[in-house]
Design a protein that fits this description.
The complex is a heterodimer of chains A (422) and B (243). Chain A is mainly beta and 422 residues long. Chain A has a 14-stranded antiparallel barrel. The relative contact order of chain A is 0.20. Chain A has a single domain, classed as Porin, CATH 2.40.160. Chain B has two domains: 127 residues, no CATH class; 108 residues, Immunoglobulin-like. Chain B has three helices and 17 strands. The chains are: A mainly beta (422), B mainly beta (243). At the A-B interface, strand 14 and strand 15 of A face strand 9 and helix 3 of B.
Chain lengths: 422, 243
């Protein structure tokens, strides 16, 4: 019975795969993988990603499709995104990568209708695991390389002069490639986890933008998350007969996001924007609860509130204009709500009870591995703050050159691109 | 025609005034009065309330003109000359019109507030043709970030002329001091304040308008705006791209 309980625990541990922050916390393999809602378009990045209520930008095709009918001109934009080296909160290394950031086209069809298409790479990361979280002098090394690419089409409608409504359909592809090897200090058992493959998922989103006054815009968007099944094997001592999850696919879920924002046009030169995201990281079923007395398995909805603010100053000259912008984006600690029960529960980053294999010699391979797993890998979960600065050079011919730099938690990133308005 | 409240706008007709028609209530609110009937009809308008509006019909020996008057909260009084010689015969219009000198006119005094003797009169605005023109919505916006936005609302296509209607948003205190295109300066335009905006109507000869026509307007001590005469929509772009 004890062995069965431990097996349930580690199975859930290794195959939960929600990648939710709290869920990640209990998965040594994916512990540093995180869904970061960071925009990949340069102007939006410079504004800290607070774009839900910002009008007249084709990147709205991704962030709030309703904004498309506010486009003054058709716009084609694209940029590259260079992510610098960094380190996650758990101490794992993030390797530098350069990839496609955002490519999009948007424009009005008439005074009431507008469309947009885009391709974006919202996640591209290579994580190399550090060994500091292991217990009992065990060694755990591995890497995860993941890229998510999203291609979408959006349409917007302006039923009345002040109201804009939009929808978005997107195909999201996640490719993962990773391996992990965990070896306890004592005994000869080895846990080997391999992930390789890709999956595509369809998602939908809706958005509203309301012109409360000539200077104030209010935005609301709900962007659905995607669900992927990625092949993964987790074997003890490399033996197929000791596969922990039956060598089947594991489910990976991208969180859905609800954003509410406001944009204030202070005169012709200043734009202030703010936004609050409610990120529903996913629903997890903590494996440790099965060890609790009574054996109940409560489910936790993991979420986070993520505020964003941005400012943009436009300085016009005779034949060009310079725009300077800055933004901040924050992430508070994830919270968790226990479904079906009143009140909030703490983030399940630590097992409620002692997470130790049952006593009794000799220890099996599973027990040896279980004993080596980290106790509370996300104990220092406190949220993070990222800053961004950027600028654009806009010519009278309709060409815009964009540059943005993000910095703060987990390393910097640089975005450079261009937009043509016609 | 916009007539500022508590300001006197003078309308000068091209012929002696034989009859002036208007509704008495509208005429009272607009403060309408006939200043003289010969040698040309002159009417003054001095609205007392912004809600005043109405249409007057001027009848002369050979011409009939209808003008819609509307009171505005802002602006200054001015003198406007309406009408002049009749259009040339049909067989003469087959020849291309010189762009800057219209063959027939119903002139309005533009940018400068009052007419002064000496310099030649600016080309006239063909108000009669304007009455028969067909509007085509454009809604093209121009302006760099940080500048006021100028909107080309629509184009009114008449038989001989095209009238372009612009709004300079929040530009009530600004004035357009130059309008030009590939053929040179355009001097036939009027501008007036409308609330917080500045409205500009530019008249160009229809025969010279092509898909590549661009019209530029410069705001005094401010930026210049260059407009294509097509909507800035994807459909318009692709239609022209694949033609």
């Amino acid at each position: 019975m004890a062995r069965r309980t431990a097996l349930v625990g580690i199975l859930a541990l290794l195959s939960s795969g929600t990648f939710a922050r709290a869920a990640e916390a209990q998965d040594v393999f994916y512990r540093s993988w995180r869904w970061v809602k960071e925009t990949s378009a340069a102007r939006a990045a410079g504004l800290g990603g607070a774009m839900t209520a910002v009008p007249d930008d084709a990147s709205g095709a991704e962030s709030n499709p309703a904004a498309l009918t506010t486009l003054v001109k058709s716009e084609l934009l694209g940029n590259v995104l260079n992510r610098r080296d960094g380190r996650t909160a758990e101490g794992d290394a993030l390797r530098a990568r350069t990839g496609m950031g955002f490519l999009g086209l948007g424009g009005r069809l008439s005074s009431r209708w507008a469309v947009g298409v885009y391709v974006v790479e919202p996640q591209a990361v290579r994580i190399e695991s550090a060994n500091s979280l292991m217990r009992e002098g065990s060694t755990g090394t591995g890497r995860v390389e993941g890229t998510m690419t999203e291609a979408g089409a959006s349409a917007a409608w302006r039923p009345v002069s002040r109201l804009h409504v939009g929808v978005r359909l997107a195909a999201t592809r996640l490719t993962l490639d990773g391996s992990y090897r965990l070896q306890p200090a004592s005994g000869s058992s080895v846990l080997e986890v391999e992930t390789a493959g890709g999956a595509t998922s369809l998602t939908a989103g809706i958005g509203i933008l309301y012109e409360a006054s000539p200077r104030v815009r209010l935005g609301l968007a709900r962007l659905g998350g995607a669900r992927f099944e990625i092949p993964r094997t987790a074997r003890l001592n490399g033996l197929p007969e000791q596969a922990l999850d039956g060598d089947g696919p594991s489910v990976v879920r991208e969180p859905s996001v609800v954003s509410a924002g406001v944009a204030l046009l202070a005169g012709t030169r200043l734009l202030l924007t703010g936004q609050l995201d409610y990120v529903r990281y996913g629903e997890i079923q903590t494996p440790f609860a099965s060890l609790a007395p009574g054996g109940s398995l409560p489910r936790f909805a993991v979420f986070a509130w993520e505020p964003r603010v941005g400012i943009e100053l436009s300085l016009p000259f005779t034949s060009m204009s310079i725009q300077l912008r800055a933004g901040l984006s924050g992430r508070r600690s994830a919270g968790a709500e226990r479904s079906g029960a009143a009140g909030a529960a703490p983030v399940p980053t630590a097992p409620p009870g002692p997470f130790l294999p049952p006593a009794g010699p000799p220890r099996t391979a599973l027990q040896e591995i279980t004993a080596a797993l980290p106790e509370t890998p996300r104990g220092k979960e406190t949220g993070s703050l990222r800053g961004a600065v950027g600028g654009s050079l806009v010519t009278a011919k309709g060409l815009r050159l964009d540059l943005a730099v993000r910095f703060g938690a987990e390393g910097a990133s640089v975005l450079a691109g261009t937009a043509i308005r016609f | 025609m916009a007539c500022p409240v508590n300001q006197t706008t003078t309308l000068v007709f091209p012929e002696p005034l034989k009859q002036l028609r208007s509704q008495s209530r509208e005429a009272a609110l607009l403060g309408l009065s006939v200043e003289r009937t010969k040698p040309t009809g002159v009417i003054s308008v001095r609205p007392t309330t912004v809600s005043a509006r109405g249409t007057i019909e001027f009848r002369g020996p050979t011409r009939v003109l209808r003008v819609m008057l509307e009171a505005t909260a802002e602006g200054t009084g001015r003198e406007v000359r309406l009408g002049e010689a009749p259009s040339p015969p049909a067989d003469e219009t087959s020849a291309p019109s010189p762009p800057a000198v219209p063959p027939s006119t119903v002139a309005a005094l533009p940018p400068t507030p009052s007419a002064t003797p000496g310099p030649p009169a600016p080309p006239a605005l063909d108000l009669q043709g304007l009455l028969r023109a067909t509007p085509r919505t454009i809604d093209r916006r121009e302006g760099l970030p940080g500048q006021r936005t100028m909107v080309l609302k629509d184009a009114l296509f008449g038989d001989e002329w095209v009238w372009l209607r612009f709004h300079l948003e929040g530009g009530a205190l600004d004035r357009v001091d130059r309008v030009w295109w590939a053929q040179g300066d355009i001097t036939t335009y009027v501008q007036e304040v409308s609330g917080k905006d500045l409205r500009i109507v530019v008249q160009i000869p229809r025969a010279a308008v092509t898909k590549k026509t661009r019209v530029s307007l410069r705001v005094a001590a401010g930026p210049a705006y260059r407009f294509a005469l097509t909507p800035s929509t994807l459909t318009s772009f692709f239609r022209e791209l694949f033609k």
